[in-house]
Amino acid sequence: AGHFSRRLQTLPPPATIEMARRARALRAEGQEIISLALGEPDFATPPAVVEAAHQAALNGQTKYPPVDGTPALKAAVARKFGRENNLIYQPSEIMVSNGGKQVIFNAFMATLNEGDEVVVPVPYWVSYPLIASMFGAAPVYARCHEEDGFRLKAAELSRVMTSRTRWVVLNFPNNPTGAVCSRQDMEEIAEVLRRYPDVWILSDEIYEHLVFDGMQSYSIAAVAPDLKERVVTLNGVSKAYAMTGWRVGFAGGPQALIAAMSAVQGNATSGVCAIAQAAAAAALDGPADLVQHMAKTYSRRRTMVVEALRQIPGVTCAMPEGAFYAYPGIAGCLGRKTAAGRLLETDRDFAIALLEEAHVATVPGSAFGLAPYLRLSCATSEVILEDACSRIREFVKNCH
Ligand code: PLP
């Protein structure tokens, strides 16, 4: 066998991959599996966006793009930040990456050294701690409690900050809980961050448009403009415009950091597919009612799923304020045995049994750092969601 890097050893196989592998095996046996495991919109990319890509390809936008993004997309991103976030960024303060994920990769690679710490609110999207670990930094976890609507509280942030903290990650609306921080929460968080003037702040706002019940999502750089010089405001077209496969994300941030991130990206990928960038610019400049329509649909599905889950004895479920997941607690189901005789000791046991016995794929909360919960994606049709919820109800009913 060949040699592999030490860095690779910091990458554990994610729980999502294990669930996907088990789901595939069952499908191969001819079972019909409902998958609520993936965080991917079921909508098609808007046709006008696809047409913009078509035109870009015909018009010869087929050469190497500038590493940090095409001028046209960077201009559209600057307009978006101004219009939607009240944030003014110059072109030199903006970069385009292969998804929001590469923004994080670039930012962490450009700044982290062995022994540094990255503060991540729990529960979290798995990539923050995984990417931080790749660069030798230690993730440090700030707990967000269900009683607080899974919002990050300033006191908890304050508790985990140290002299080694290099980054604080904020992700509201949150994956997996859907929590949205209020303006007041953000102001209190900013107050803590002011005490640590050397710490960078990653504000992942990729779910910003998917907020419900009149909630509003806040950008920390707009709430606390004095912090803007340390904030990377991350966003992208994947979730808002149903464009996960186009791989376009972007960030606004201080010029020196954006330049360092571009240097990383230049070596990794030479930038983002020019055709996809033309499509993303069309999406950002396109009509806002498409996004509104999708947000309304997710809101309706969320309410339906949460209400169905709350009917199940042993299951609790907070009402998510944003994103497109439900995060039910299953503590009341643990210690029981399934119809097939499996003992449910953890949320992983529950998720595996649910998949194998009721054919519903979910992700256990432990994968996001907070157990015992499940994450269900509501980015699928109401008929499928109803079927999934009744399968979960039957599954739990048959546990004893
Ligand atoms: N941030 C969060 C919280 C996410 O859930 C995701 C995708 O799952 C991303 C960022 C990155 O998305 P993309 O790389 O498709 O832009």
Automatic annotation (TrEMBL):
It catalyses: L-aspartate + 2-oxoglutarate = oxaloacetate + L-glutamate. Gene3D superfamilies: Aspartate Aminotransferase, domain 1, Type I PLP-dependent aspartate aminotransferase-like (Major domain). It comes from the Bacteria. Keywords: Aminotransferase, Pyridoxal phosphate, Transferase. Pfam families: Aminotran_1_2 (PF00155). It is an enzyme of class 2 (transferase). Residues 32-392 form the Aminotransferase class I/classII large domain. One of its GO terms (molecular function) is transaminase activity. Signal peptide: none annotated. Its EC number is 2.6.1.-. Its cofactor is pyridoxal 5'-phosphate. Belongs to the class-I pyridoxal-phosphate-dependent aminotransferase family. This is Aminotransferase.
